[in-house]
């Protein structure tokens, strides 16, 4: 794959810190687009605000850097307006799970054909290290100086319950698998959610005794449990682990195609 | 015959995170004093592409050397 | 036809093909009407999970090339503010209809008010311009809705159509203009090739960059951060200054053409009533009564309230010796009138904010020589 | 007709707003008078008293609110209590027979509208159309046939017959209205 | 149970339409409070905006009628400020599932000791009948004049996935069971979610061939499937059904009690 | 001490025990500092899922009896508006700190601005009053934060502390007043019995009803709808009118005591600089330079910007022949100065909104006789 | 001996939804012309309380008649 | 000391803002001078160049921004490019040896700060403290011991020793600073 085809080379290097996992996830998305064979002029990449949400600026598609927490709502407007467009949302654990949680579950429910990729570095990177709804319990963050007491979301469970057609979680450590989830997500009609565990050495690692990007990757390796294996483990054992794999693969009808049918039936005078 | 490779590092993009070095099976990559990655032992590259895959900054390219030449 | 319905008709006639919204009294009929009519013309209606999402979806659809509208009332208008600002910053054409009810807060959901006049100007954070239209009849609702869509497209900006419950729910005889008398405006399209395209490169003297729809081959980046002509973020003071100035000037430049208003009985008048929206109905009744009583009163009904038609107000008002501003709030637009008028001329407010339509009598009482 | 103000009031859900809308539509369609229709509900569109108001006039209507109705219909006690106050002194008042009213000066009719509607049509759902026809007949705003045309275009499919009957009942009540007239204050005093 | 003890009798009759199910659900809550034996002066009932959200006005506790969609967030502030208070949230399918969805899932995740009761009449009642995220597919509503194409949420699945300690769904038809869920919900520490299927004859019934409150109750009776039975049914069979019963009963630690521990550990200089 | 930190210290010293917020540059240090310090004093800190929830939680905690604060910046301030209005309507004491950054929209997140001045006054829908304080030093940040909490409690109203990035991130030497010099205000408590308690019954001439905390035995109803003295909804015009008037008058009545400001060199001055917030720092430098040059310039630094100190401004300004209003926006508070001043006196704006602190030179340039 | 009951209907609260009538096992409740519920056959009430439970407007009270009196 | 403006710049994450804060704290604590510290980051607190600025003065400091620094430290090329422009003509400039600089008039020192820090202390993490000590020694703002006190109160537990070494290294560099001095424009011209 030629970088030039999909990246705005002149904008690189990206602004992310040394060893930040976001670069790897962005590449995984681009490989997925390449595999899907989509015409780049028909691809729209939408993001909110956060380090992760800076990704679209480097990607040579129609790119839209919106406001914090709402990229999925913007994407819903885009997709419904023109269902031919391939719409990818890049979001973070703050952008997508904190302020943006409602838009995420409603998009799942509608099962609208948007592919959401959530860069989960378990922290608010952009604003310098406050805890997020996906920060592990006990972690140190600037707003949890005594250790975080809030349990994190399992957004894969949640998006599946909310009705997404495709749900998967991978990690930057297990990159080839992540590439595979992207490929599958992009190939499927309807709403897809791919969560990529990424590392923020600057704000998560430093405060939580993971002193380098490498230690963070090690942590991913050690804590990832495949979903099949996880099914046989009890909840206690699973605490603090990252369950990876495919959580949902369904074929419920996509929203905009239902809408198109509605239009034809209204216009055809039927119904 | 094992593959061989030429490794190119884009110094403008490399941020010195050392991820490539860790994943290189031949341990032929190392950090220079200025915080940029450098190929210390080019001869031993087996063009496995691990470094390319792993670099979060897209700063490495590996060219497979055609052994038949 | 009802005022709310007229807004829908005006928007559809202007080419609107997309509506996203969240129901709220007294604006819900707008949504309901779009829900019924849009699919018939191949357009899209979606009820989003809240007002924020509605505003976002409207901006998204706009970038995908549709003419897009949302409608709401006070509480929802407050919620939409962040993304109204975003739409202004990235220059996404869109129309926000706010059918005002009595606030603050939940207030009186089914009663009329004009309490969001200043919010319509200043509601989102940061410096930003505003283009706000106020209908005072069902016919106005149609025409100004049409105009709002046109201006949104022409100036690449969010336009706010500020109704009130009275006008929104009013039914009255309306004679619509002939379709061929209505000129539809469409956003500018780029002339050059996708390769050379810079989304915020200002080539024309109207200061407005072209906006190709997603999927048309022009790939570009858009952000709510300050950005240069390439669309990418910049924090260089000269760039940020230039962008902010342009956002204001692209509207200010055409200010005069944007001032819509009606005047009545200005000749020889020595007193002036200024009003807008539903209050203008009462103002007109008051003006008639005053005239019948032989008072030399003029009437200025503003349709464009922002940008504030300073030039019109001073021109019409400078030679009066009493100005009465009639509005359904505790005094909002009157502040602007005071700002622009010489202190010599008394500016009086005929105001009411209790959920009841202001009466002609209240306005009359502020005129001199009535008793 | 100079400015003539009509207020139709009752409980939310009785369809009086629709009646007001139909009346206004009929005026727009079949006369060259100016007309305005407004409505108002309880605190948040749920329960309580509701009213529809129509103003008909030969001249431009500026102030769109009904302040001193020439005609008041009140189908419920709550509506009567809330909305009777500003009726013109000699304005016409029609109330349902179950409403307790205070003695007054103008023409006042106490009509068993709801009861008769239920009895004759088997449902109270069309009490709004009955009331509308009553009003129209009384004032001859538009011809019966024309009102019917507008009504039938507005009501749900399948209810046409019922609504025609409702129109007929309303007109009948209007014709016999005098039998429901109660004594005015003055008449009382005269006795 | 004396009505006077818990209701503001002088405010009755309530504003709800004839046959509206909300009155029954409100009574079920009050019975639950009675069973729990809570001191009424320590109970706070918080609601958003909607017909359902008008309930607190009739209930003789500390009552707070807030803004649309946010009652759970207000309740979070109240509970955290004073964990001794018993905090009940009354919300609707619009208030709680549409605009308020995010606050709901975040409260579940934190597992804060709030009891949410959602009056699910499958429609926006207060604003006169627009579809909600819980309106069944195909239903008529003022904003779905051609039939609703959006799939409804299963909020019981969602709140369970999000981490609530107690989750149940009942119907007005099956009132005694509903009473039982209230009792259980109020007895359990941590976050609880009880969904009550209620009827809106005025705006849902009329438009959807359920011509009276009674037909609507019939509909509830016919479509309710007990969760145990539902487990053996396939998704196709379950479409359009209402699964009732208890979805979750857990004992994860409650948020404010964790916070109190944090305070003592900080103040004790430990940690 | 940093400006943001000083806000925290001031609030804690005023008795704040509750913070709910959502991080945003350049306000995050306020949250971080509260997170560290509140548990030490037995108080509560919570990071909510967004700004709306934060505002709601703050109001909830306030009703539960805590002194509660939130902090944010532009985009979050826009989101909080709906519930700020609710807090005003139900009269829940609370403090909202907005550390302004350059907008509109995402703008320049790390650059200073004063673009939310009008929004702080008019940001929520419907008619509502506003009480807004602007610190121009770290010491101010401490003192005004303390004052904001006091006033919130005393007047039962949301109070907005409007900082800017410069002051928020500034560190400078601060000499804090002695603790015993600081008088803490607490909200009024009811005198009678729970049975006879009517939550909005106005017994005192300050027009402010008492507010017992949840759980104290006083059970009452609270709603964002218009309500009467019992707290239950009413749409009777006399009730709605009375409530809205009281909400304004309870503040207006004490207006004079709310006007905080500093003046420099007014004697014999024929020109006046008016400024606030970070701009006032540059204004003071400009004033010094002008004085050194022998110009007769006075300086008015406003700490209270809303209610607008009309009386102070006219009193100080009426005899000048040039007024320069220095602010970091395209002209916001200047509108008020223009409104209240006689047209005879030129009012000039020294403005900049490109993310850079306004310079003394810019301000000097607007004075007469500088050349 | 089956229980008996006196049924009281609060006419100010009753909205005439007929829910009570449907759930009454003895079918002794019926709507009056004015839309309020009425006890048509008071004798037959078995004090089962279904009507009380079912009334969404709390408009019914049933007093159990003590048979031992 | 009249108003003296200091700008410490480098890459985000090098800790220069902390250095600025420490310097300001030391001034507040151990002198009676006025001091102001401000900072600025890249577009959104991530990546790019970052600077901390300190103003020290005997008089009240109104305008809190550094406009014409008397002293500039630039540890990276990007920081240098962005922030060198407004340095006073005869202001002092200290840059890391890897930074390419333009010829200028004032005293200019090109110091291998990063390299020496890495070599002598085994990590570049404390390059901020090295720089701070260098500046302090050069200007003798506060005594070495006092600076150390403030530094040690601010750095994470367990890094005290490292930071003491960093202070020592910085002072050493300051003492030998002349060896890093490069020729000024004028000196060049004289040759
Ligand atoms: C309305 C609003 N609230 C808050 C912010 C501040 N903000 C910017 S990014 C961010 C969090 C980003 O976290 P995440 O989405 O996890 O992205 P990351 O930086 O970790 O990749 C926040 C809170 C904002 N810009 N707008
Ligand atoms: C911010 C805001 N948006 C919209 C509304 C209008 N609104 C009031 S209630 C409601 C829906 C209520 O539906 P639900 O919660 O299901 O309650 P129900 O009336 O059905 O019991 C809406 C959309 C509002 N008051 N505030
Ligand atoms: S702060 Fe964290 S998430 Fe952001 S760029 Fe740096 S490492 Fe990545
Ligand atoms: S992984 Fe990339 S950025 Fe990191 S050191 Fe290697 S080449 Fe440099
Ligand atoms: S290609 Fe393989 S062997 Fe060669 S440098 Fe990269 S990782 Fe090492
Ligand atoms: S509209 Fe529906 S939900 Fe609201 S009170 Fe009437 S029946 Fe109940
Ligand atoms: S259930 Fe209650 S409200 Fe309904 S008819 Fe019976 S008594 Fe009346
Ligand atoms: S108590 Fe039972 S039998 Fe008696 S009226 Fe009620 S439902 Fe009928
Ligand atoms: Mg993150
Ligand atoms: Mg509902």
Description:
The complex is a heterooctamer, with two copies of chain A (271 residues), two copies of chain B (69 residues), two copies of chain C (371 residues) and two copies of chain D (191 residues). Chain A is α/β, with parallel strands linked by helices and 271 residues long. Chain A has helices at residues 3-6, 22-36, 71-81, 101-110, 155-162, 175-187, 201-205, 213-223, 227-231, 235-238, 255-267, and strands at residues 43-47, 62-65, 86-92, 114-120, 166-171, 192-197, 224-226, 242-249. Chain A has a single domain, classed as Rossmann fold, CATH 3.40.50. In chain B, a hairpin with a 5-residue loop joins β2 (29-31) and β3 (37-39). Chain B has a single domain (4-58), classed as Alpha-Beta Plaits (2-Layer Sandwich), CATH 3.30.70. By secondary structure, chain C is α/β, with parallel strands linked by helices. Chain C has two domains: 3-181, 3-Layer(aba) Sandwich (Rossmann fold), CATH 3.40.50.970; 262-364, Rossmann fold. Chain C has helices at residues 3-13, 28-37, 51-63, 74-90, 117-122, 138-155, 165-169, 237-252, 255-258, 277-292, 310-317, 333-340, 360-364, and strands spanning 18-21, 44-47, 68-72, 94-102, 108-112, 132-133, 158-164, 171-172, 221-223, 261-264, 271-276, 297-302, 304-306, 322-327, 347-351. In chain C, β4 and β5 form a beta hairpin. Chain D is an alpha/beta fold and 191 residues long. Chain D has a seven-stranded mixed β-sheet with strand order 2-3-1-4-5-6-7, sandwiched between helices. In chain D, α1 (16-30) packs parallel to α4 (127-139), α4 crosses α6 and α5 (144-154) packs antiparallel against α6. The mean pLDDT of chain D is 90. The interface between D and F is small, with 3 and 3 residues. β2 (62-65) of chain E pairs parallel with β9 of chain F.
CATH architectural name of chain B: 2-Layer Sandwich
- Beta-strand percentage of chain C? 15-25%
Pick out the low-confidence regions of chain B: none
Radius of gyration of chain C: 21 Å
Q: Biggest sheet of chain C: strands, sense, closure?
A: 8 strands, mixed
CATH class of chain B: Alpha Beta
**In CATH terms, what is the fold-level topology of chain B?**
Alpha-Beta Plaits
- Give the strand order of the largest sheet of chain B, numbering strands 1, 2, ... along the chain: 1-4
Number of domains of chain C: 2
- SSE sequence of chain C, one letter per element: HEHEHEHEEHEHEHEEHHEEHEEHEHEH
Largest sheet of chain B: 2 strands, antiparallel
Distance separating the two termini of chain B: 13 Å
Task: Briefly note the structural class of the backbone of chain B.
Answer: alpha+beta
**End-to-end gap of chain C:** 38 Å
Give the number of domains of chain B: 1
Strand content of chain B: 25-35%
Report the bound ligands by name, code or SMILES.
thiamine diphosphate, iron/sulfur cluster, magnesium ion
Give the structural class of chain C: alpha/beta
């Amino acid at each position: 794959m030629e970088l030039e085809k999909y990246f705005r080379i002149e904008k690189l290097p990206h602004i992310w810190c040394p060893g930040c996992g976001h670069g790897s996830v962005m590449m995984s998305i681009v490989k997925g687009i390449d595999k899907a064979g989509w015409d780049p002029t028909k691809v729209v990449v939408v993001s909110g605000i956060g380090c992760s949400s800076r990704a679209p600026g480097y990607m040579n598609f129609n790119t839209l850097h919106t406001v914090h927490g709402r990229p999925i709502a913007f994407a819903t407007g885009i997709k419904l307006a023109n269902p031919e467009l391939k719409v990818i949302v890049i979001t973070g654990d703050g952008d997508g799970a904190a302020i943006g949680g409602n838009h995420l579950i409603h998009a799942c429910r509608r099962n609208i054909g948007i592919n959401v990729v959530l860069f989960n570095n378990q922290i608010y990177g952009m604003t310098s290290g406050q805890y997020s709804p996906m920060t592990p319990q006990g972690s140190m963050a600037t707003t949890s100086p005594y250790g975080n007491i809030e349990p994190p979301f399992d957004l894969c469970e949640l998006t599946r319950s909310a009705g997404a057609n495709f749900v998967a979680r991978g990690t930057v450590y297990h990159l080839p698998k992540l590439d595979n989830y992207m490929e599958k997500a992009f190939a499927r009609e309807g709403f897809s959610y791919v969560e990529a565990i990424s590392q923020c050495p600057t704000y998560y690692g430093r405060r939580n005794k993971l002193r380098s990007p490498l230690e963070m990757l090690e942590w991913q390796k050690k804590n990832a449990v495949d979903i099949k294996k996880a099914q046989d483990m009890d909840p206690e054992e699973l605490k603090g682990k990252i369950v990876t794999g495919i959580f949902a693969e369904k074929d419920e009808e996509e929203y905009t195609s239902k809408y198109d049918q509605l239009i034809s039936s209204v216009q055809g005078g039927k119904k | 015959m094992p593959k061989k490779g030429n490794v190119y590092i884009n110094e403008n993009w490399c941020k010195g995170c050392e991820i490539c070095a860790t994943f290189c099976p031949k341990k032929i990559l190392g950090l220079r004093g200025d915080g940029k990655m450098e190929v210390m032992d080019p001869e031993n590259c087996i063009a496995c592409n691990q470094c390319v895959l792993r670099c979060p900054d897209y700063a490495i390219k590996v060219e497979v050397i055609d052994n038949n030449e | 036809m009802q005022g709310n319905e007229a807004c829908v008709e005006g928007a559809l006639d202007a080419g609107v093909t997309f509506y996203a919204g969240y129901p709220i009294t007294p604006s819900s009929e707008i949504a309901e009407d779009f829900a019924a009519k849009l699919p018939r013309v191949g357009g899209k209606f979606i009820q989003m999970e809240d007002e924020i999402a509605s505003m976002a979806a409207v901006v998204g659809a706009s970038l995908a090339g549709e003419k897009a509208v949302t409608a709401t009332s006070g509480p929802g208008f407050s919620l939409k503010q962040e993304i109204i600002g975003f739409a202004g910053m990235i220059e996404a054409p869109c129309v926000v209809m706010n059918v005002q009810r009595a606030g603050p807060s939940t207030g009186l959901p089914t009663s009329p008010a004009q309490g969001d006049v200043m919010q319509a100007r200043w509601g989102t954070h940061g410096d930003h311009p505003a283009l706000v239209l106020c209908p005072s009849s069902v016919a106005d609702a149609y025409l100004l809705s049409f105009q709002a869509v046109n201006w949104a497209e022409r100036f690449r900006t969010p336009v706010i159509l500020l109704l009130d419950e009275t006008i929104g729910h009013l039914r009255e005889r309306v004679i619509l203009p002939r379709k061929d008398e209505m000129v539809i405006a469409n956003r500018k399209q780029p002339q050059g090739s996708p390769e050379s395209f810079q989304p915020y490169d200002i080539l024309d003297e109207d200061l407005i960059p072209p906006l190709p729809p997603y999927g048309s081959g022009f790939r570009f980046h858009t952000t709510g951060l300050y950005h240069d002509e390439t669309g990418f973020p910049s924090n260089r003071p000269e760039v940020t200054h230039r962008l902010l100035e342009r956002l204001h000037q692209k509207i200010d430049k055409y200010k005069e053409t944007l001032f819509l208003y009606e005047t009545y009985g200005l000749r020889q008048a020595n007193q002036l009533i200024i009003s807008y929206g539903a209050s203008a109905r009462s103002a007109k009744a008051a003006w008639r009564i005053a005239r019948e009583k032989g008072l030399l009163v003029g009437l200025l009904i503003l349709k464009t309230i922002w940008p504030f038609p300073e030039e019109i107000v001073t021109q019409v008002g400078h030679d009066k010796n009493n100005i009465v501003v009639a509005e359904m709030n505790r005094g909002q637009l009157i502040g602007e009138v005071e700002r622009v008028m010489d202190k010599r001329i008394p500016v009086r407010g005929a105001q009411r904010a209790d959920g009841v339509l202001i009466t002609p009598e209240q306005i009359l009482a502020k005129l001199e020589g009535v008793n | 007709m100079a400015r003539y103000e009509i207020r139709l009031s009752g409980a939310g859900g009785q369809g009086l707003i629709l009646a007001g809308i139909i009346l206004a539509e009929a005026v727009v369609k079949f006369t060259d008078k100016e007309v305005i229709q407004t409505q108002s509900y309880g605190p948040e569109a749920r329960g309580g008293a509701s009213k529809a108001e129509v103003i008909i006039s030969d001249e431009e209507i500026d102030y769109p609110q009904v302040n001193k109705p020439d005609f008041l219909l009140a189908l419920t006690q709550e509506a009567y209590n809330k909305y009777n106050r500003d009726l013109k002194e000699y304005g016409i008042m029609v109330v349902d027979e179950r409403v307790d009213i205070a003695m007054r000066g103008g023409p006042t009719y106490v009509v068993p509208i709801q009861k008769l509607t239920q009895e004759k049509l088997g449902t109270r759902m069309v009490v709004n159309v009955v009331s509308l026809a009553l009003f129209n007949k009384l004032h001859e705003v538009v011809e019966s046939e024309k009102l019917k045309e507008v009504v039938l275009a507005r009501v749900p499919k399948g209810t046409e017959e019922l609504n025609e009957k409702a129109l007929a009942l309303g007109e009948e009540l209007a014709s016999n209205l005098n039998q429901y007239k109660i004594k005015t204050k003055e008449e009382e005093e005269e006795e």
